[in-house]
């Protein structure tokens, strides 16, 4: 039989087991400190009960999907699905063509 574990060694082993369960230090994500950032965002257009129409004339709504340099924000940042992200991009581009939105920030 092997030697019994000391209380400090046993405490250390329990602590490491808890960390692995949480995905830290050698867990599922390779131990590089990468952790989930919470729940995944859901598409605002898919979730809403009232049908939100993506229209190039609705400038206030479209500005929410532009960053400070007037670039179209990524779907990862806004949480929109592929279908609605494509429609948003088309509406923003059309709105820029009509000079309702800027191409670059002032």
Write the layout of secondary structure elements.
Layout: H1 7-21, H2 44-47, H3 59-63, H4 75-78, H5 82-97
Description:
The chain has 106 residues and is mainly α. The chain has two domains: 1-32, no CATH class; 44-97, 30s Ribosomal Protein S18, CATH 4.10.640.10. The chain is 42% helix and 0% strand. The protein is built from five helices and no strands. The radius of gyration is 24 Å and the shape is elongated. The mean pLDDT is 82.
Assign an overall shape: elongated
Computed over alpha carbons, the radius of gyration is: 24 Å
| CATH topology-level name of the largest domain | 30s Ribosomal Protein S18
Strand portion: under 5%
- The level-1 CATH class of the largest domain: Few Secondary Structures
Which architecture of the largest domain would the CATH scheme give at its second level? Irregular
Distance between the termini: 76 Å
Residues in helices, as a percent range:
40-55%
Determine the structural class based on helices, strands and strand pairing: mainly alpha
**Mean pLDDT across every amino acid position:** 82
Largest sheet: none
């Amino acid at each position: 039989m092997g030697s019994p574990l000391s209380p400090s060694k046993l405490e250390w082993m329990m602590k490491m087991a808890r960390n692995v369960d949480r995905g830290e230090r050698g867990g599922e994500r390779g131990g590089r400190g990468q952790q989930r950032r919470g729940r995944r965002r859901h598409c605002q257009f898919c979730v809403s009960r009232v049908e939100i129409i993506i229209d190039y004339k609705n400038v206030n709504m479209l500005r929410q999907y532009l960053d400070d340099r007037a670039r179209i924000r990524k779907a990862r940042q806004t949480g929109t699905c592929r279908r609605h992200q494509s429609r948003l991009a088309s509406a923003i581009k059309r709105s820029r063509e009509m000079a309702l939105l800027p191409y670059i920030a002032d």
